[in-house]
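FYI - complex with adenosine monophosphate, inputs then prediction.
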Amino acid sequence: MHKKGLKDVDVKQKRVLVRVDFNVPLSPDGDILDDFRIKAEIPTINYLRENNAKVILMSHLGRPKGKAVKKLRMDSVAKELSKLLGIPVKKLDDCIGEEVEKAIANADYGDVILLENLRFHRGETENDNEFAKKLSSLADIYVNDAFAAAHRVAASNIGVTAFLPSVAGFLMEKEIIVLSKLLSAPEHPFVGILGGAKVSDKIDVINNLMNTVDEFLIGGGMSFTFLRANGYDIGYSLCEENAISTARQILENAKKKGVKITLPADVLSAPEVKENAPARIVDIEEIPNDGIGVDIGPKTAKIFKKKIQDAKTIVWNGPLGVFEFEAFAKGTYEIARLLGTLKNKTIVAGGGETAATLRKFGVDKQITHVSTGGGAFLKFLEGHSLPAIEAIEDKD
Ligand code: AMP
């Protein structure tokens, strides 16, 4: 990696300000529903503690729009982090100011401090220089480990880099290395599994990945726009009318480049998207006029699985059906379960729904890398350089 990492700086007896992404889903009562992003920070935090640094963590949570919102305080995150680390984490009530400075001065080396939600200050999302300066005055070194926020410009991931030596944390490093390899030097055959609701969200990803993948397996809602572009009647299945011509173009480009695009051969069709709707498997030519394709069918699952088994590199984004309903989750589940059993392959998954799916089915640990990024993951695969990664210092 051409960016400086944690091991390129001496953190001993230093105050280290770490931008993490603890923007976790919360229940209406403020309980953490998924601690995946918190767990992902443990290696960086432990390394800093073992090397006798004062660890000062900062993150945003939700969208408080520049003012303090009780529900979006970082207290439940601090509690969860304390549990995971097995030490008390000192949660502060602001992220800048005198009280914060005092608390940091009084902390011991090896302690972990969590600042209050950055977005309680408007300066965060506005990348305000004064706010960035105040944040950076708290530390000697800045570590960016918030890959999931790296596509956004903020004071805590861009502004601060003007004032402090800036390096990548272990999570950021891993994300950059794994995702860069997909774009520059993947082992072939390389298969991209794409699902989810909309083609329009994934056009740039498809166009960029087309330079490295050998084949796309497309399922989920987005497959129906492609099927329409190929002339099929798709009943009431999700279709983006204004993306049909783009889908057609993608199919043509793929043909020219020798990239295969495999679409569903059969689907589970239901009269409505409802758990107990009377769904049935139909071939793609036979979707009823009033039917909605809610999952890939067994023929498609078999075809996809064979191609996945034959691949050396696999990247996955987007569920292959309306997986929120148990009855329509079979296709997504089968692919997830297969990925969990494969050996000697590079398997990378990303996007909020996809990562959640892998965890739900308990196979996230078995695959090479589950990205913490949603938007950042897609932007990276589109081939864009992410502003917060750019802002980290280059290696000498
Ligand atoms: P995305 O955020 O684009 O990855 O889309 C995820 C959403 O796509 C999930 O909420 C799924 O319910 C939805 N989805 C997947 N397959 C279908 C489908 N066949 N019809 C409608 N929505 C779908």
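The longest helix spans residues 170-184. The pocket of adenosine monophosphate is lined by residues 195-198, 201, 220-221, 238, 293-294, 318-319, 321-322, 324, 351, 353 (CB under 6 Å).
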